[in-house]
Write a structure and sequence with these properties.
The chain is α+β, with helices and mostly antiparallel strands and about 450 residues long. The chain contains 13 helices and 17 strands. The longest helix has 19 residues. The two termini are about 50 Å apart.
């Protein structure tokens, strides 16, 4: 008898036999009749003005069906993708959101920026033709670090955004937190960078656009998280047609971890090219192109502080977070800096907390929610600060955690930062983890390693 599904119950996998025996259906397995291949000419510069683009030689190259630029896209009257949700700056005004062209007009703002689209009978012909496009670049100073980008005199990613700040987001009780720091016996501070992460999926990103001239229907084939959301955005916001005129079909994705949640420019470009040419158009990234065009994750820097009394009880925690959103906002680009900030409370009984998030434009890839979307970054903040406090106060890092864990009798427990926990026995969890790791035997294992000239 099949039991009713419940939390923690294993879910049998049913897809493995098909995938392990070569039965997968990934994006590049799709080859509609009369398929054309697309290649994107990308910027080699992180920042530069474009003085001129000459596509004449590329258009005359063998097998070339079209060489398209921003002027062609503008002439057809289609729109640019936008980001949701919208946020605000420190003074309550709307965040700065630049016009995010599928192909750039007069300036590139990241390595890999979208300069021109070449469509040909074969991929090699499209790549060869792209090398014939002459682009006159005037390189500009660039900035890649969010902290450096908000300093006076830093290069401006966008002329209309003097401080490079996209938005500011505050959470927690600042007054109570600051007051707790005033009375603390011990305050520990640390600058905590969280590296940018690039995705390396089993199958790189790709897209096939197929416009049916007889019915006026569009079909996009791509590996993605939310085909219904991408359908609505492409139909209603980009190409200005009813949603029932658009289909987004996805098979086996080949890995995502957040990478494939946004509406990428390539989706727009292959659909647009297919409508212009009357043929399906396929674009597939190789690994190098993926690193230049995929949305990335993480890339935050915490300026964190923790306040404790002389016994080791945590009184408060506060932090400033400088989050990199890249040169452009992806369609989900405001989520990574603020998602799951409550995780910074950890499993600890901390009376007061406050976090100040500043999201910053730089000359780098746009950001997307990635593998936990804010949880690892926030966990790193509180756990690293606790370790540093334990070092400062010469305390056992396990015991300082144990004494600050939320007691079971306080459940349900409203943390000082966003979340409410309905249950949990964290003291027992610590004990179980110590037993499983043979915590008490660690000293002996370390001494044994040292006798053999090793470090543990």
């Amino acid at each position: 008898m099949v039991e009713k599904f419940g939390i923690g119950q294993p879910v049998p996998r049913t897809e493995d036999p098909r995938l392990l025996t070569g039965g997968g259906n990934y994006l590049d397995d799709n080859a509609p009749t009369n398929l054309a291949r697309a290649h994107i000419l990308r910027s080699p510069y992180a920042a530069a003005h474009i003085r001129k683009i000459d596509t004449s030689a590329a258009k005359a190259a063998p097998g070339v069906l079209a060489v398209l630029t921003a002027d062609d896209y503008d002439a057809d009257g289609y729109a640019a993708p936008q980001c949701t949700p919208k946020r605000k700056t420190h003074d309550g005004t709307a965040m700065f959101e630049p016009y995010n062209r599928p192909l750039v007009k007069d300036r590139v703002r990241m390595v890999g920026d979208y300069v021109a689209l070449v469509v040909a009978e074969t991929l090699d012909q499209a790549k060869d033709a792209a090398e014939l496009i002459e682009v006159d670049y005037d390189p500009l100073p660039a900035v890649s670090n969010p902290w450096e980008a908000i300093q006076a005199g830093a290069p401006q990613v966008w002329d209309d955004c003097a401080d490079n700040i996209c938005f500011v987001h505050l959470v927690g009780d600042k007054a109570a937190t600051d007051a707790a720091f005033e009375t603390a016996d011990v305050v520990v501070k640390q600058w905590l960078p969280v590296n940018r992460s690039a995705h390396v999926t089993m199958e790189p990103r790709g897209a096939i656009g197929d416009y049916d001239q007889r019915s006026g229907r569009w079909t996009l084939y791509t590996g993605c998280h939310y085909p219904w959301q991408i359908r609505d955005e492409l139909a209603e916001k980009i190409f200005k047609v009813p949603a029932h005129k658009f289909s987004v079909k996805t098979g086996d994705i080949g890995g995502s971890f957040g990478l494939r949640g946004a509406t990428y420019h390539e989706y727009i470009l292959v659909c647009w090219a297919s409508r212009r040419l009357g043929r399906p158009v396929k674009w597939i990234a190789d690994r190098s192109e993926g690193f230049m065009s995929d949305h990335h994750g993480r890339d935050q820097t915490w300026d964190g502080e923790i306040a404790l009394d002389k016994s080791g009880k945590i009184l408060a925690m506060r932090a400033k977070n400088y989050s990199n959103v890249g040169a452009y906002l992806s369609s989900r680009g405001t989520l990574p800096p603020v998602a799951n900030l409550g995780t910074a409370a950890g499993t600890y009984d901390v009376p007061a907390m406050h976090i100040d998030v500043t999201a910053v434009y730089t000359n780098t890839n746009p950001m997307c929610p990635f593998r936990g979307n804010g949880r690892p970054e926030a966990s790193y903040l509180i756990e690293r600060l606790i370790d540093l406090a334990a070092d400062e106060m010469d305390m056992d890092p396990v015991e300082i955690r144990r004494m600050n864990s939320i007691p079971q009798e306080k459940m349900p427990y409203k943390t000082a930062l966003v979340f409410t926990y309905d249950s949990g026995d964290f003291d027992t969890s610590i004990t179980l983890a110590q037993d499983m790791a043979d915590w008490s035997g660690f000293k002996a294992r370390r001494e044994d390693s040292a006798k053999r000239g090793l470090l543990r």
